[in-house]
Write a structure and sequence with these properties.
The structure holds 2 protein chains of 2 kinds.
Chain A lengths: L1 E10 L3 H12 L5 E4 L15 E3 L1 H4 L3 E2 H14 L3 E3 L2 E6 L4 E6 L3 E12 L3 E3 L2 H4 L9 E3 H11 L1 E2 L3 E5 L3 H12 L3 E7 L8 H8 L6 E3 L1 E7 L6 E6 L12 E4 L2 E4 L3 E3 L2 H5 L24 E3 L10 H19 L9 E5 L3 E5 L2 E2 L5 E7 L3 E10 L2 E11 L5 E5 L1 H4 L6 E7 L1
Parallel strand pairs in A: 1-2, 1-8, 2-5, 8-20, 10-18, 12-13, 12-18, 13-14, 21-28
Antiparallel strand pairs in A: 3-4, 6-7, 7-8, 9-19, 15-16, 16-17, 21-23, 22-24, 24-27, 25-26, 25-28
Helix pairs in contact in A: 1-3, 1-9, 5-6, 6-7
Chain B lengths: L1 E9 L3 H13 L4 E4 L16 E2 L10 H20 L3 E2 L3 E5 L2 H17 L5 E4 H7 L9 E5 L3 E3 L1 H14 L3 E3 L6 E4 L4 E5 L2 E10 L5 H8 L6 E11 L10 E4 L9 E4 L5 E4 L3 E3 L9 H14 L8 E12 L5 E6 L2 E5 L5 H20 L22 H10 L6 E3 L4 E2 H9 L7 H8 L12 H12 L18 E2 L1
The chains are: A alpha/beta, B alpha+beta.
Chain lengths: 416, 476
């Protein structure tokens, strides 16, 4: 067993890990490694062959692999050490990272700093508790996407999609383009959790009906899926008797939420937020364990990769500052979710630093404002025609606004 | 097609496989196991509570009581020899009122009459210290220290592998539809032709009554009694260290909360009599019922970390006891082998193998092959052992299932075992790939690929669980 000292270990070579690595190297961290469990870097972008990535960062529409390729090229140019086919087995509170690979066996890195960039996973059927049989043909949308886009194999021909998350919407279009019939997209909530542009481009353009306030209540089929029962739900999300519709289908794709993959963080003693399921961080994206940072979808599930990259650049720079002993000093203020706001990140901030607050609205709010307050004073406000849970809100806050603040900072939604 | 064998075992559940192993170790006869599903342990043996019952539930004097106590005693040795996960964690049957107290007093009496060691009644204060997450409304409980937990399907895989190593053969996707006596023994009718045998054993689970009634004048009636369960992800700290039962009802042992040998938490089962013995679906009502009843034992229960739900079918004989022994000349059986069937199976197999060999006059086995346990899972190794495992086989350095930490070497080994996995579910149950919180979301595509490679099949031919349960419908 090999023990290696490293200034910085980045766990995950998706868009978050790549951006963090690039930023850390550019900020002067020479001795760093990125550990990636897949055969290639790029993360989930590798299977996202649709376009729409990079609008904010590059002002152009790239496919997932194209977006990833730019960061990989930059990482190569900077000579970053990316170890693929390498799975991290554990991280401890002393920043020891144990990983394994076919070629290097079991290795332990003793890191000066760690950036957690493991991304997220999809909620499976089991987490929903949907009853029925355990037949073949029930997949998460991402697993189906992997089969179709990376393996060239079709998981089914007649499809119902449960949940209107972005991957589900994208797969509705993808399966249709490959000759499958997508019968319906069924969403439990009265609104979609996906991006509006995906509703338009992936459902409406292909005449795929979206059933809001509906859910799948039964899954039938002894061997392969044969049918699902869809029912309307009431305001408390309980199925309404008498609203049963049966869809004969061979495939049910689930796009019912993403969960940050924090099992490693948890075992390292990192405090997690029950609201984001990611780490509790300060404005430098440092977690409760000193020298351990988190960024991207492992911190909170983003809507756009552009924001993942942006956040991860900050994490890379912050880790570099930490390693140079230049991390911000002094106490922090707490940031709290107010009405209509869920999971503001960061949860703590140094009042002498500029910061961007990010969160998802707790529901749909029309003609509303996001208001940031502390000590009974308003510090920032952002108005919009509509806020939805599918689209993240980013709210920059200048350090000068925070001068003299002593109490908690609250972010809330205000409807006019 | 016509096949001949000395001994035909119908059903590759825990009884069939335990018996196949005993016979293949003890006598020189040819053993053939015919199974209607695509793998062993596809019926009740894979979908039950995984409890090795201490033996206080069954009425003294019944076959259930006798075989349960005997079987429970055999478990530690059998599991150690075969390398099957088994832990003697003990059990508590909790009383929530004075009526329950009289029930557990009766269970204590019954258990003592059955010869169950170490039983005692624990009063409230001590009970809450033993299991702090228990509902404080608990009055007292019966403690059964010899109660254990086992991975039921892994036991069956190990039994089948050991039987196969000693020459037993397995015929899958083969349903025995009828038994016809012949001058030399029996003719078993299947869709693919007849199997001729000298003697036959009917351990066809929920299908065993039909075969019994073909060969015997003493008719039996089986009821399909479904049990639904929820499974929670492995918590850092298990809520209970023992199996927690509520008082039994006339339908069964009641709802339990138990850690599993792999550190998950098992909740259930329901007990519903249903018309179709193959209907292993779960229902909204059933799962709601489990959740509600579990809260009596564990008020802090949350389904937020649920990874899956499932159901299994108990083959309940209307008179309530096992029907075991000789059904007709050259024909043995285990009918109505519901709980405590899993616990009783090693005892039944040992006893029945002896009877069959004596009665049929089969000669002794000359060479016995020892079991080849699958070894410690990568996930449970120390870092030093993991380093060694990768050095020995670099494929151990390739993780496939991230939730349960399963390596490519382990998946390939599961497929290459004597009775190896041929389906995605078969891989899952043999080495836990896909058993975790993402339920195969990440690893299923890779598992399909490895199965296709190992079996020499196209990926589109790979099924989830046999039959028409194909994972993929075609190429793009």
């Amino acid at each position: 067993m090999n023990t290696i000292r490293k200034e910085l270990v980045i766990i995950g070579g998706g868009p978050a890990g790549l951006a963090a690595g690039i930023a850390a190297r550019e900020a002067g961290v020479e001795d760093l490694v990125i550990l990636e469990r897949e055969h290639e870097a790029g993360g989930i972008l590798r299977q996202c062959i649709h376009n729409g990535f990079g609008l904010h960062r590059y002002g152009e529409e790239l496919t997932g692999p194209e977006y990833a390729a730019r960061d990989i090229a930059k990482a190569e140019e900077l000579g970053l050490d990316i170890r693929c086919d390498t799975t991290v087995l554990s991280v401890d509170g002393d920043r020891r990272v144990t990983c394994v690979s076919r070629t290097d066996g079991l290795q332990i890195y003793e890191a000066g700093a760690i950036i957690l960039a493991m991304g997220c996973r999809e909620r499976p059927r089991g987490a929903l508790g949907t009853p029925g049989t355990r037949c073949a043909g029930v997949y998460t949308a991402g697993a189906a996407q992997k089969f179709v886009n990376l393996e060239g194999l079709m998981p089914g021909k007649r499809v119902v999609i449960l949940g209107s998350g972005d991957i589900g919407l994208i797969m509705a279009r993808r399966m249709t383009l490959q000759g499958a019939k997508v019968l319906a997209c069924v969403e439990l909530m009265p609104y979609s959790s996906g991006l509006n542009r995906n509703i338009v481009q992936c459902l409406q353009d292909y005449d795929i009906p979206l059933y809001l306030s509906h859910t799948v209540t039964d899954i039938r089929g002894r061997e392969r899926l044969e049918a699902v029962t869809v029912m309307e739900v009431d305001a408390k999300r309980r199925p309404i008797p008498g609203t049963e519709q049966v869809f004969e289908c061979d495939t049910l794709l689930l796009s019912v939420g993403l969960i940050p993959e924090n099992e490693l963080s948890q075992r390292a003693g990192v405090e997690l937020s029950p609201l984001t399921s990611g780490a509790v961080v300060d404005d430098t994206l440092q977690t409760s364990v000193p020298g351990v940072f988190a960024c991207g979808n492992v911190l909170h599930v983003h809507d756009l990769v552009d924001f993942v990259s942006d956040e991860s650049f900050r994490a890379g720079r912050a880790a570099a500052d930490y390693l140079k002993g230049q991390a911000p000093k002094g106490g922090t203020l707490a940031v709290r979710d107010g009405e209509g706001v869920r999971g503001v990140v960061p949860q703590k901030l140094h009042p002498d630093q500029d910061v961007t607050l990010m969160f998802r609205p707790a529901g749909v709010y029309k003609n509303a404002s996001v208001v940031v307050e502390a000590d009974g004073k308003e510090m920032a406000r952002k108005r919009a025609m509509i806020f939805t849970p599918g689209e993240m809100v980013a709210l920059p806050l200048k350090a000068e606004k925070l001068a003299g603040v002593t109490g908690d900072i609250t972010v809330r939604m205000e409807v006019r | 097609m016509q096949t001949y064998t000395d001994i035909l075992i119908i059903g590759a559940g825990v009884v069939g496989c335990a018996l196949a192993r005993e016979l293949s170790l003890r006598c020189a006869a040819d053993v053939l196991v015919a199974e209607r599903a695509c793998d062993v342990a596809e019926g009740a043996s894979k979908a039950n509570s995984g409890i090795v019952h201490a033996g206080f539930d069954a009425k003294p004097g019944t076959e259930k009581a006798r075989l349960n106590v005997m079987g429970a005693r055999m478990y530690p040795a059998v599991c150690a020899e075969l390398g099957v996960p088994y832990k003697q964690i003990g059990a508590l049957v909790v009383a929530f009122d004075e009526a329950d107290r009289s029930t557990i007093e009766k269970l204590l009496e019954q258990g003592e009459a059955n010869g169950v060691p170490g039983l005692r009644i624990v009063e409230h204060d001590e009970l809450m210290k033993m299991e702090p997450n228990l509902n404080p409304a608990a009055v007292c409980a019966l403690e059964a220290p010899t109660s254990g937990i086992v991975s039921p399907y892994e036991l069956v895989y190990a039994l089948a592998d050991h039987a196969a190593l000693n020459g037993a053969e397995f015929l899958f996707d083969t349903e025995v539809q009828g038994l016809i006596p012949t001058a030399e023994g029996w003719r078993a009718v299947t869709a693919d032709g007849d199997i001729l045998c000298r003697c036959v054993v009917n351990c066809a689970g929920i299908g065993s009554a039909v075969l019994h009634n073909q060969v015997s004048d003493r008719k039996v009636e089986l009821v399909a009694r479904r049990g639904q369960y929820d499974v929670l992800d492995h918590p850092e700290q298990p809520p209970f260290t023992r199996t927690m039962f509520q008082c039994p009802t006339k339908m069964g042992k009641g709802v339990l909360v138990s850690p599993t040998v792999h550190g998950n938490v098992l909740l259930g089962p329901t007990a519903e009599d249903i018309p179709d013995g193959r209907d292993v679906s779960t229902t909204a009502e059933g799962l709601a019922n489990v959740a509600e009843k579990v809260k009596l034992t564990w008020p802090g229960m949350s389904l937020r970390t649920a990874v899956t739900n499932f159901s299994g079918i108990r083959a309940h004989e209307v008179n309530g006891d096992f029907i075991v022994g000789k059904a007709a000349p050259h024909c043995w059986e285990a009918v109505g082998f519901e709980s405590p069937g899993l616990t009783s199976s090693p005892a039944l197999a040992a006893e029945m193998a002896q009877e069959i060999i004596a009665s049929e006059g089969f000669g002794p086995k000359e060479k016995i092959v020892p079991p080849q346990p699958k070894g410690k899972p990568f996930n449970e190794m120390t870092p030093e052992e993991q380093a060694e495992a990768v050095a020995r086989d670099p494929m151990n350095g390739q993780l496939i299932c991230r939730c349960e930490v399963v390596t490519e070497a382990e998946i390939r080994a599961a497929i290459r075992r004597p009775v190896g996995a041929r389906t995605v579910d078969g891989v899952k149950r043999r080495c836990r790939a896909g058993m975790g919180r993402c339920q195969g979301g990440f690893c299923a595509p890779r598992v399909v690929e490895i199965l296709a490679e190992e079996l020499g099949l196209p990926m589109t031919a790979i099924t989830k669980g046999g039959g028409e349960s194909r994972m993929l419908v075609g190429e793009i």
